[in-house]
Amino acid sequence: MKPTTHQICEHCGLPSVGARFCCAGCEAVFHAIHDSGLEGFYRLREIASSGPAPIGADFGAPSAGHFARFDAPEYLERHAVMEEGGLYGVELYLEGIHCAGCVWLIERMPRFLDGVVDARLDLGRARLSLRFDPALCPLSRVAQWLARFGYTAFAVRAERIGARTRLERSMMVRVGVCWAIAANVMLLAIALYAGLEHYGDQALASAARWLSLLLCTASMAYGGSVFFRRALASLRVVAAERSAHSLRQVSMDVPISLGLLVGYVHSTVATVTGTGEVWFDSLAVLIAAVLTARWLQVRGRRAAGDAAERLLSLLPSIARRVCGDADYEEIPAESLRPGDLFEVRAGEVVAADGWIEQGSSSVMSAVLTGESRPEAVGPGAAIEAGVTNLGSRLLVRVTASGRQTRVGKLLQWVEEHGERRAPIVQLADRLGGVFVLVILAAALVTGLVWSLVDPSQAVSHVVALLVISCPCALGMATPLALTVGVGQGARRGIFIKHDDVLESLARATHVIFDKTGTLTEGRMTVAETYGSEQAVRLAAALEVHSNHPIAVALRDAVTFGPTQPECSDIEEQPGGGMRGVVEGKVVAVGHLDWVLSQATGSACARDDAVLVARMAHDGLTPVVVSVSGRIEAVVGLGDRLRPKAQELIASLKARGITPALLSGDHPGVVDATAARLGLDTQFVHGGATPEHKVRFVQQMRKRLPQATIIMVGDGVNDAAALQAAHVGVAVHGGSEAALVAADVFMTREGVEAILELVQGAGRVMNVVHRNLLGSAIYNALGITLAMLGYIAPLVAAVAMPVSSLGVVVSSLVQRSFVRRNYTKRNTQRRSENHDTEECTP
Amino acid sequence: MSVLYFLVPLALLLALGAMGAFFWAVRRGQFDDLDTPAIRILMDDDN
Question: What is the pLDDT of residue A417?
Fold first, then answer.
């Protein structure tokens, strides 16, 4: 029995068995690209590639109805911005973007579509900025053109984008301005540290201090105000609660604000009176550095905000309520009340959950379930907000609208969870607060002690202490390390939405896989054969004429050589098997009972029956082959384990992670797969419904409170389970709703990807711990030496930025999610395959 | 050394100019996407 030849799809690079393409979608996109002369796409694909190439829609060429909603006038109004010259600007979110080739291809749109003036793609956010003239080129045509290449377009709501972008931009400006001020103050401070006031022109020194005061005041007012406001708010909350416990909730802004104010007041007094040290440079740098950390965190949250926005943009904002006989009233979708009747025309998206009162149509619920095949619905059928109505007009009675819809509840959950911060960042904050207080206390002690011992040195030692101590690792390097880690992950096709997830991933103890397809190939292949090989060959020849998965599996298992056996009188019985005449003999292939009923006068040998029963018990599908009326062979078909599944599961276990399998597939198959991989049976369940999955995760959390659970899923049915677990991972090809519920989105499937995720997260946390440790040692050493009087202010002034730089660089140069060596092996195998492709016909 | 009384304020004025330019660039959205421009330069504009 020859093994199937493994080729890779010419378009997306995923394995395709014995064909040029892995699916009809890839083939369609491949031809679309070549027909348009855009083959350059393939050259650029390897650059910044984060996953497989865009795969064409599974449901064949999308009908015009799909895109009708893009042309509705309200649509343009809600989503597009009018510019001069009658042009409109619109932002579209595109699904299926993943590499530089996509940028190149999409930005060529103006060459193909008249009326499109400019197309700019933001690769990281998969957002297309389009400037076009709707009179020349309606938006639906743009969406259709994109769909040919496998990209699905959704318009992002203008007002929501605006708010977040404005926030990010204003933060960026604040950071930039504060750094500019800090840099200038530092330049002036160099002169002062170099001894301008002792050896140089007193007037100049005084001018330098006054100028520093001026600049620092600007920085305090513009940048520092962020901290002061939050510190006040935090104190107000604590004062209102008035308990010892609430003292712990004092945010880090309070010590920072305190430090800033004390430093500022002292320095101002020193400047005015002309005596004493000034620390304007430290203050300005502190403000700029902490603002940068905050900005990085906001930027790091982009993916989460983007995901929620995308989902929101999928819901229509306007609904058409029916009042009276033929009267429609256009109202905001959220204003629909349960019991209202609203209309959904062809091509539109359903605005609220409900059931169909009138009309029959087909709908596509890819947003919710990831299933892009249309389903037929009729009166009485339940329908949810977010599905697209493909066919004809529907009248729907509302059961839930706005926030109460399934999708709405998901969005609400996302918003509530959006503000959480990583435990390690919270720890860093608390430590930072404590740190500052400790420093101030130490400074006080140093000042007092030294003024008794040797007053002339007291001040310089206090200054040295204050300058050399640096909470950079706490305030800045930790968020930086997490953000950089997330960015690296993104380049590997792992999109982490919140950086606090990294910590949970590193500590993960359990991983729940949602379907056997993650561990197995997801296809039927021949696992066992008993009996005459010749009979199997004849059976395969017969099965060439069928598209049933069993037929495909049998076909792949056999190679025919130059001539295929001739078949005639072919008859296929759904649910039973196939029968025909091959090379002159009557052959029947199928289930045991059916085959027996076909072949008259044949008895079923006891061995065969036992064999069939055993195979079924093992989770294989038994297929019986009879030739000329006698059973000649029994073939067991099953889902093969993915090639490295065993090793990968072992690697997971080696990391201390227990794998679990929670699948909706047949329990027999699930148990068999789990047994082959050596999974603990208490963590294996087949035939699991979505409710079972959620309950399983919740029970697991109750039973094992110390565990950190990762759940891998791809449909909206998994969304609740994804939320229930500590970390939810959604996989490429899943539904939008799953993407929103998940904490991590991966463009690659399989155990290997999960392993990479967990290992990468572990490495990032190592960097963070390394930073904290390094900073702790540096500070302990520096403060001790300063207190003992061994450090001159100048030395401190140099040491502090060096240490900060060290910690920041350590965060930046981490190699947590770098492409590992196995990629080289993959590319080698790819070129080997190409060689063999050309040799064998 | 007294030339510093002239030079330092001049330098600050330049810094102010730079900040203005930064502000303008941020307003125009030039800093929104820092990754894709790096890829765009690798593309040939033939064909």
Answer: 63
